[in-house]
Hints:
The structure holds two protein chains of two kinds.
Chain A: E1 9-13, E2 18-23, E3 32-38, E4 45-50, E5 55-56, E6 61-64, E7 70-75, E8 84-91, E9 103-105, E10 108-113
Parallel strand pairs in A: 1-10
Antiparallel strand pairs in A: 2-7, 3-4, 3-8, 5-6, 6-7, 8-10
Chain B: E1 5-7, E2 10-13, E3 19-24, E4 31-38, E5 42-50, E6 53-57, E7 64-68, E8 74-78, E9 87-94, E10 106-107, E11 111-115
Amino acid sequence: DAKTTQPNSMESNEEEPVHLPCNHSTISGTDYIHWYRQLPSQGPEYVIHGLTSNVNNRMASLAIAEDRKSSTLILHRATLRDAAVYYCILRDPLNAGNNRKLIWGLGTSLAVNP
Amino acid sequence: KAGVTQTPRYLIKTRGQQVTLSCSPISGHRSVSWYQQTPGQGLQFLFEYFSETQRNKGNFPGRFSGRQFSNSRSEMNVSTLELGDSALYLCASSQTRDSSNTGELFFGEGSRLTVL
Protein backbone atom coordinates (compact mmCIF):
# COMPACT_ATOMS: atom_id res chain seq x y z
CA ASP A 1 0.00 0.00 0.00
CA ALA A 2 1.15 3.52 -0.78
CA LYS A 3 2.50 5.26 2.29
CA THR A 4 3.28 8.85 3.23
CA THR A 5 6.11 10.24 5.34
CA GLN A 6 5.77 13.45 7.33
CA PRO A 7 7.94 15.17 9.95
CA ASN A 8 6.76 14.41 13.47
CA SER A 9 6.50 18.06 14.47
CA MET A 10 6.91 21.59 13.20
CA GLU A 11 6.74 25.04 14.74
CA SER A 12 5.62 28.35 13.34
CA ASN A 13 4.96 31.91 14.46
CA GLU A 14 1.55 33.47 14.26
CA GLU A 15 0.74 35.27 10.99
CA GLU A 16 3.68 33.68 9.19
CA PRO A 17 3.32 31.15 6.36
CA VAL A 18 3.74 27.46 7.16
CA HIS A 19 4.88 24.80 4.71
CA LEU A 20 4.07 21.25 5.79
CA PRO A 21 5.87 18.65 3.66
CA CYS A 22 4.78 15.14 2.78
CA ASN A 23 6.70 12.47 0.89
CA HIS A 24 4.84 9.77 -1.01
CA SER A 25 7.46 8.19 -3.25
CA THR A 26 5.35 5.07 -3.95
CA ILE A 27 2.31 7.03 -5.12
CA SER A 28 0.44 5.45 -8.02
CA GLY A 29 -1.04 7.27 -10.97
CA THR A 30 -4.56 7.06 -9.59
CA ASP A 31 -3.81 8.16 -6.02
CA TYR A 32 -5.24 11.46 -4.87
CA ILE A 33 -3.35 13.37 -2.18
CA HIS A 34 -5.56 14.36 0.74
CA TRP A 35 -4.82 16.48 3.80
CA TYR A 36 -6.76 16.42 7.03
CA ARG A 37 -6.07 18.08 10.35
CA GLN A 38 -7.06 17.17 13.87
CA LEU A 39 -7.55 19.84 16.49
CA PRO A 40 -7.18 18.83 20.15
CA SER A 41 -10.08 16.72 21.41
CA GLN A 42 -11.76 16.62 18.01
CA GLY A 43 -12.01 14.24 15.09
CA PRO A 44 -10.00 15.02 11.95
CA GLU A 45 -11.38 17.55 9.49
CA TYR A 46 -10.80 17.76 5.75
CA VAL A 47 -8.41 20.47 4.56
CA ILE A 48 -7.71 19.99 0.86
CA HIS A 49 -6.98 17.40 -1.81
CA GLY A 50 -5.44 17.24 -5.27
CA LEU A 51 -4.23 14.93 -8.02
CA THR A 52 -1.63 16.67 -10.16
CA SER A 53 -2.20 20.40 -10.20
CA ASN A 54 -1.75 22.81 -7.33
CA VAL A 55 -4.98 23.53 -5.46
CA ASN A 56 -6.24 26.45 -3.40
CA ASN A 57 -9.19 26.77 -1.08
CA ARG A 58 -10.20 29.04 1.76
CA MET A 59 -8.21 27.02 4.29
CA ALA A 60 -4.94 26.33 2.52
CA SER A 61 -3.01 25.65 -0.67
CA LEU A 62 -1.62 22.34 -1.86
CA ALA A 63 1.54 22.30 -3.94
CA ILE A 64 2.22 18.99 -5.70
CA ALA A 65 5.64 18.16 -7.11
CA GLU A 66 5.84 17.50 -10.82
CA ASP A 67 6.73 13.83 -10.24
CA ARG A 68 3.98 13.63 -7.59
CA LYS A 69 6.35 12.00 -5.13
CA SER A 70 5.95 14.83 -2.65
CA SER A 71 3.54 17.58 -1.78
CA THR A 72 3.38 20.59 0.52
CA LEU A 73 0.43 21.96 2.43
CA ILE A 74 0.71 25.73 2.71
CA LEU A 75 -1.03 27.74 5.40
CA HIS A 76 -0.58 31.31 4.23
CA ARG A 77 -0.89 33.03 7.60
CA ALA A 78 -0.80 30.73 10.60
CA THR A 79 -3.14 31.48 13.47
CA LEU A 80 -3.26 29.96 16.93
CA ARG A 81 -6.31 27.98 15.79
CA ASP A 82 -4.15 26.22 13.20
CA ALA A 83 -2.25 24.36 15.92
CA ALA A 84 -3.19 20.76 15.16
CA VAL A 85 -1.94 17.44 13.84
CA TYR A 86 -1.88 17.45 10.04
CA TYR A 87 -2.25 14.19 8.13
CA CYS A 88 -1.26 13.60 4.52
CA ILE A 89 -2.89 10.49 3.06
CA LEU A 90 -3.36 8.90 -0.34
CA ARG A 91 -6.75 7.85 -1.62
CA ASP A 92 -7.27 5.72 -4.70
CA PRO A 93 -10.77 5.69 -6.20
CA LEU A 94 -9.99 2.93 -8.66
CA ASN A 95 -8.58 0.28 -6.36
CA ALA A 96 -10.90 0.23 -3.39
CA GLY A 97 -10.92 -3.51 -2.98
CA ASN A 98 -11.74 -5.57 0.06
CA ASN A 99 -8.13 -5.52 1.18
CA ARG A 100 -7.61 -1.82 0.74
CA LYS A 101 -5.98 -0.30 3.81
CA LEU A 102 -6.13 3.42 4.42
CA ILE A 103 -2.90 4.39 6.10
CA TRP A 104 -2.87 7.57 8.17
CA GLY A 105 0.21 7.33 10.34
CA LEU A 106 1.05 9.87 13.03
CA GLY A 107 0.96 13.07 11.00
CA THR A 108 2.79 16.34 11.76
CA SER A 109 2.05 18.13 15.00
CA LEU A 110 2.10 21.86 14.27
CA ALA A 111 2.72 24.31 17.10
CA VAL A 112 1.96 27.99 16.49
CA ASN A 113 3.69 30.56 18.67
CA PRO A 114 1.94 33.86 19.45
CA LYS B 1 -27.09 20.01 8.94
CA ALA B 2 -26.13 17.78 11.86
CA GLY B 3 -22.66 16.30 11.83
CA VAL B 4 -21.51 12.77 12.54
CA THR B 5 -22.69 11.66 15.97
CA GLN B 6 -20.89 9.04 18.01
CA THR B 7 -22.13 7.50 21.24
CA PRO B 8 -21.08 7.06 23.93
CA ARG B 9 -18.38 9.73 24.10
CA TYR B 10 -16.58 8.09 27.00
CA LEU B 11 -16.74 4.64 28.53
CA ILE B 12 -14.77 2.45 30.86
CA LYS B 13 -14.74 -1.33 30.62
CA THR B 14 -12.74 -4.14 32.18
CA ARG B 15 -10.69 -6.81 30.44
CA GLY B 16 -12.78 -9.60 28.97
CA GLN B 17 -15.91 -7.50 28.56
CA GLN B 18 -17.35 -6.48 25.24
CA VAL B 19 -18.36 -3.05 23.98
CA THR B 20 -20.61 -1.65 21.26
CA LEU B 21 -20.07 1.81 19.82
CA SER B 22 -22.58 3.65 17.66
CA CYS B 23 -22.19 6.09 14.79
CA SER B 24 -24.89 8.12 13.06
CA PRO B 25 -23.60 9.55 9.77
CA ILE B 26 -24.56 12.85 8.21
CA SER B 27 -28.00 12.63 6.64
CA GLY B 28 -27.69 11.33 3.09
CA HIS B 29 -24.24 9.81 3.60
CA ARG B 30 -24.18 6.08 2.92
CA SER B 31 -20.52 5.28 3.54
CA VAL B 32 -19.28 4.87 7.11
CA SER B 33 -15.73 4.01 8.14
CA TRP B 34 -14.19 3.35 11.54
CA TYR B 35 -10.72 4.14 12.87
CA GLN B 36 -8.77 3.44 16.03
CA GLN B 37 -6.49 6.18 17.32
CA THR B 38 -3.79 5.58 19.92
CA PRO B 39 -0.84 7.79 20.87
CA GLY B 40 1.72 5.31 19.61
CA GLN B 41 0.08 4.08 16.41
CA GLY B 42 -1.82 7.12 15.26
CA LEU B 43 -4.97 6.64 13.20
CA GLN B 44 -5.54 3.11 11.97
CA PHE B 45 -8.32 2.02 9.65
CA LEU B 46 -10.68 -0.62 11.03
CA PHE B 47 -13.39 -1.15 8.42
CA GLU B 48 -15.78 0.55 6.09
CA TYR B 49 -19.40 -0.01 5.18
CA PHE B 50 -21.57 1.07 2.31
CA SER B 51 -25.22 0.11 1.95
CA GLU B 52 -24.98 -2.39 4.80
CA THR B 53 -22.02 -4.20 3.17
CA GLN B 54 -18.49 -4.25 4.50
CA ARG B 55 -16.29 -3.02 1.65
CA ASN B 56 -12.90 -2.70 3.25
CA LYS B 57 -11.25 -4.12 6.33
CA GLY B 58 -8.08 -3.12 8.12
CA ASN B 59 -5.56 -5.30 9.89
CA PHE B 60 -7.37 -5.98 13.16
CA PRO B 61 -8.25 -9.29 14.84
CA GLY B 62 -11.67 -10.85 14.54
CA ARG B 63 -12.63 -9.47 17.97
CA PHE B 64 -13.34 -6.23 16.13
CA SER B 65 -16.53 -6.33 14.10
CA GLY B 66 -19.08 -3.95 12.76
CA ARG B 67 -22.29 -3.60 10.87
CA GLN B 68 -24.37 -1.02 9.12
CA PHE B 69 -28.12 -0.69 9.19
CA SER B 70 -30.52 0.25 6.42
CA ASN B 71 -30.63 3.85 7.70
CA SER B 72 -26.81 4.00 7.32
CA ARG B 73 -26.21 4.08 11.05
CA SER B 74 -23.30 1.87 12.02
CA GLU B 75 -22.11 0.03 15.07
CA MET B 76 -18.77 -1.50 15.92
CA ASN B 77 -18.25 -4.16 18.51
CA VAL B 78 -15.13 -5.26 20.32
CA SER B 79 -15.35 -8.55 22.21
CA THR B 80 -13.05 -9.93 24.90
CA LEU B 81 -11.52 -6.54 25.56
CA GLU B 82 -7.79 -6.25 26.15
CA LEU B 83 -5.87 -3.41 27.80
CA GLY B 84 -4.42 -2.50 24.40
CA ASP B 85 -7.89 -1.77 23.06
CA SER B 86 -7.94 1.47 25.05
CA ALA B 87 -8.16 4.13 22.38
CA LEU B 88 -10.23 6.81 20.71
CA TYR B 89 -12.54 5.20 18.18
CA LEU B 90 -13.49 7.52 15.36
CA CYS B 91 -16.26 7.18 12.84
CA ALA B 92 -16.35 9.01 9.53
CA SER B 93 -19.07 9.31 6.93
CA SER B 94 -18.82 10.10 3.27
CA GLN B 95 -21.31 11.00 0.61
CA THR B 96 -19.61 8.88 -2.02
CA ARG B 97 -19.77 5.18 -2.51
CA ASP B 98 -16.36 4.41 -1.13
CA SER B 99 -14.24 6.43 1.25
CA SER B 100 -11.19 5.42 -0.75
CA ASN B 101 -12.14 7.77 -3.53
CA THR B 102 -11.83 11.50 -3.55
CA GLY B 103 -14.84 12.07 -1.36
CA GLU B 104 -14.32 14.17 1.72
CA LEU B 105 -14.56 12.31 5.02
CA PHE B 106 -16.56 13.87 7.85
CA PHE B 107 -15.48 12.67 11.29
CA GLY B 108 -17.32 12.47 14.57
CA GLU B 109 -15.69 13.48 17.84
CA GLY B 110 -15.03 9.87 18.75
CA SER B 111 -15.74 7.44 21.56
CA ARG B 112 -12.94 7.21 24.09
CA LEU B 113 -12.69 3.68 25.47
CA THR B 114 -10.64 2.87 28.54
CA VAL B 115 -10.06 -0.78 29.38
CA LEU B 116 -8.99 -1.51 32.97
